[in-house]
Amino acid sequence: MASRLRQTFFSIALTAVATSACHPSVPSVPAAPPPGDHWQTLDTEPYEGKRDDIVFASAHVGFYGTGKGDLFRTTDGGDSWLKIWSQPGTFIRAIGFVDTQNGWLGNVGTEYYPGVTDEVPLYETHDGGETWAPVDLGGAFVKGICSIDIVQTKHIHQGVLEPRTLIHAAGRVGGPTAIVRSVDGGEHWNVIDMSKDAGMILDVKFIDSNVGFVFAAAPTGAEVEGARILKTRDGGATWTSVYQSGRPGENVWKASFPSARVGYATVQSYDPEREQQVVVKTTDGGDTWAELPLVTDAKARQFGIGFMDENTGWVGTMVGGFATGDGGRTWVKTNLTPASNKFRMRAMDGTFMPIAIGTSVQRWDVSKDVQPPVDSP
């Protein structure tokens, strides 16, 4: 699948974004949407602004939320959606489900967005989203959640290899920062204070129980400002800065790891004079990150990013989406709607079904000319 899609991208090379990692100052010109870019806009309830997160538990059952506290569920793969829960004053920023019944919902919290009155940072459901209850964090202070990451692993317990569900919820935009962690599928939780390492956390991703990342901004008054990526090798006990933009007014918004060694992340800039937009990429498991030019456009502030394999992926911006088929060396304009904030490549049961959410909910039509990539986790 990936090779066929890359051939499509390369066939329109004359209209592609003319940038490369070796020539970051070369102006880039967005191209027309490439053939074979099959993002379909789904029929959803109108919403002013962007929606932040979407997740499919299976090929048929999925969920998304809004900043108005409305939660929607589909049971037909996204063809139709039904509002199943509503709590005005809650800002649904992040969603994670381990299966069709059990999931978690992150609320951004108060004192950031107008109209948000709910102070509960994290909720859980055990009936497919029909009802939600606050997660007991043992009195630890967590202001809000911006991202939820769920990883299915295995570990040896009393000589038996058993499944293990890791859950991390982190935030928030504007701070303060913390990670909520469970290594037993949500039965028990502990809170990791991140205030010394990050001024805000926008995304979290763990590869296994020990190795993980937060995608963030430096704390206010830090010696080196700007966007920051932190890595842990001991389950969050200690953190090391592995990327720092050094430019004020930037953060790392979202990330995507198509494999354990290759990852990408968006660098979001609020500098109105900065035209060159960049993404960052790692090929060594997140120890080092290199900047890759995306597009020269000060209005193209970045949001979500998603890769279906190590070379093929998308970035959502305020002016629409961009796609690459060569690992981020070149980018072309796509038919993604503006402000695509979150991409998911697979449902939690492993079904290959790329989905994007932002000002619209969009689904990649896998029936057109693609097959699931064999090298995607």
The count of β-strands is 28
Strand content: 35-45%
- Fourth CATH level, the homologous superfamily: TolB, C-terminal domain
Helix-strand pattern: HEEEEEEEEEEEEEEEEEEEEEEEEEEEE
Radius of gyration, in angstroms, nearest whole number? 19 Å
- Roughly what percent helix? under 10%
Q: What is the residue-averaged pLDDT?
A: 88
Largest sheet report: 4 strands, antiparallel
Tell me the count of domains. Answer: 1
What is the strand arrangement across the widest sheet?
1-28-27-26
Q: Which CATH class?
A: Mainly Beta
Determine the N-to-C terminus distance: 15 Å
Continuous helix count: 1
**Shape estimate:** globular
In terms of per-residue confidence, which ranges show pLDDT below 50 for 5 or more consecutive residues? Answer: 1-36
CATH topology: Neuraminidase
Structural class: mainly beta
CATH architecture term: 6 Propeller
Write the layout of secondary structure elements.
Blueprint: H1 2-11, E1 39-41, E2 54-56, E3 62-65, E4 70-74, E5 82-86, E6 92-97, E7 103-107, E8 122-125, E9 133-134, E10 147-157, E11 160-171, E12 178-182, E13 190-193, E14 200-206, E15 212-217, E16 227-232, E17 240-244, E18 250-256, E19 263-269, E20 276-282, E21 290-296, E22 302-307, E23 313-317, E24 320-324, E25 332-333, E26 342-346, E27 352-357, E28 361-364
Could you give a short description of this structure?
By secondary structure, the protein is mainly β.
Structure description:
It is a single chain. The chain has 377 residues and is mainly beta. The chain has one helix at residues 2-11; strands at residues 39-41, 54-56, 62-65, 70-74, 82-86, 92-97, 103-107, 122-125, 133-134, 147-157, 160-171, 178-182, 190-193, 200-206, 212-217, 227-232, 240-244, 250-256, 263-269, 276-282, 290-296, 302-307, 313-317, 320-324, 332-333, 342-346, 352-357, 361-364. The protein has one domain: 6 Propeller (Neuraminidase). 3% of the residues lie in helices and 41% in strands. The strands form 7 sheets. It has a 4-stranded antiparallel β-sheet, with no helix packed on it. Mean pLDDT is 88; it is low at 1-36.
